[in-house]
Amino acid sequence: MVEVENRYVLAKTLVILGTDNWQIPKLVKPTHIARNISKGLASAKFLGPVTIEAVGKPLLDFVTQQLRSSGIRVTQVFSDTKLVLRMAIWALDTPDPANILLVAGDGDYQDIVDHLRTRGHNVMLAQIIRSSNLMLKITSKIIWEWGDLASGRGPLREEGNLHIREKYLRKYLGNRPKSQIAEAPSIRCELCYHLLPLPKKPEKLQCRCSYMIDLTSTTPLTPLTTLL
Asked: CATH 3.40.50 occupies which residues in the chain?
């Protein structure tokens, strides 16, 4: 069972559906999507008010109408920029810690996700098989399969998250010493706590705050904590 921090149980939840790479499961009616997503969130103990928005490429007219009739706001655009902007604006309008569930494919959303997390928001992922950004999968503590979420089921169990982590280690970190693999996939800057992805080879990293992290040193990385 996935553990949820108390401050997020009754908090507001924004669900962003990136429509560029997702499909509605065959056995799920578009008119049931909103209800099923709320059910899936409730099964994971997210019990606060839920807002659902679909952002991305234009959908078939009848699908758009059915999604809107179920309470989902649909915005049709041809760029990931609108999706990122919508998350940022919602977060500004929601200063208290809140939940954001991103249903997305291979777009580059890591910067906005990192920013939202530093502001205290709980950002989760519903992954689209063979499409969702691997780094997003690695840095998300709570993950759904999109088909499960659309059907009203709960998130992956801990062993499912570990499988994703192992896939990352095999693909990107296969030749690293165990001491560095233990710190994968990211480390925190000791000065500003910004998350930095570990490079494939030991090197000196400069954080956006200008603090230098020397990964070529033999000094253990114990002062730096991983996201996971």
From this structure: 6-169
**What is the number of other CB atoms lying within 10 angstroms of the CB of residue 174?**
9
Please give the mean pLDDT across all residues of the chain. Answer: 77
In terms of C-beta density within 10 A (0-12 exposed, 13-18 middle, 19 or more buried), how is residue 130 classed? Answer: exposed
Q: What is the pTM of this model?
A: 0.68
**60-73 burial, b for 16+ CB within 10 Å, e for fewer?**
eeebbebbeebebe
The DSSP code sequence of 76-104 is E-SSHHHHHHHHHHHHHH--S--EEEEEE
Residues 163-217: tens digit of each pLDDT: 555 554 455 444 444 444 444 466 666 555 567 777 777 777 777 666 777 776 5
CA dihedral over 166, 170, 171, 174, signed as positive or negative: positive
CATH of region 6-169: 3.40.50
